[in-house]
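Subject: Interface between my chains keeps coming out wrong

I've been trying for a while to get a sensible model of this assembly. When I model each chain on its own everything looks fine, but I need the whole thing in one frame so I can look at the contacts. Pasting all components below, labels as-is. Any help appreciated, I'm running out of ideas.
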Amino acid sequence: QQQVKQSPQSLIVQKGGISIINCAYENTAFDYFPWYQQFPGKGPALLIAIRPDVSEKKEGRFTISFNKSAKQFSLHIMDSQPGDSATYFCAASKHNFNKFYFGSGTKLNVKP
Amino acid sequence: ETGVTQTPRHLVMGMTNKKSLKCEQHLGHNAMYWYKQSAKKPLELMFVYSLEERVENNSVPSRFSPECPNSSHLFLHLHTLQPEDSALYLCASSQRSGNSPLHFGNGTRLTVT
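Reply #2:
Try treating it as a single job with all components included. I did that and got this:
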């Protein structure tokens, strides 16, 4: 059973537009929700993360929105740029151990 | 420049070969991980070592054998692999306590012929 479900699988956005990627989880014990960005030929790199005691976290053009009651969280990329074209993974983990459950990834293509 | 270094970057091996993947972390972390990344699938956790002791093994086939001689080095020994084992193998490290994020290497692209 997949613990974290991610959508869409791929996304095409025009330069300057907003990219939105959604994730849903089942286990209410999860208390840490990071997003990773992966470029071709590279490993995933931490982009931004949130804990369930806040509903939103913003870092530059990247924002995580978190809905605890719906068990959903999403990544918003404002003013999307061609350099943002990459694969994005959401993840979730429990506090007592760093075991991460990953979504299946979203390949984002920002067209100039 | 990544704090987690993996070698080799690419590996092609036959089904009867024996090879090893190497990972080294320079971040002072005390937990290290092997993940398998296949196309359009979630990252699959293979092994976790914390303080040099293996604490997680997600029923990985015995043809994969990990080794963690110290907190900075991690190996994945491969033998008699199958073509379906072809994938990107990622090493990661983190602090053991709390919600510490994973830091990944750039992976080894493995092709089994």
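Reply #3:
Confirming on my end. Chain A is about 0% helix and 60% strand.
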